[in-house]
Please model this.
Amino acid sequence: MPKYIDTHPMGSLTSEQLKQLQKAPKDKFGITHHDILYNKKENRVYCVLDAPNKEAVASHHKHAGIECEWIREIESTR
Model:
């Protein structure tokens, strides 16, 4: 499955909520979290996701009330 990275503000998300998202099973958009990186001081989250396509990534975030600033398909050395 393709991998994507996106970024958005952290907003009211806590580090504990992000950890729970990391463990979540595949959702209705076909998304699983590969990694979630964040910086509280800069109010920034970077999600590395396994997803069927870019549109699924956008829908996954919109369903949670989050608007991604950008979404990019990526490759990994893992």
User: Anything to note?
Assistant: The longest strand covers residues 32-39.
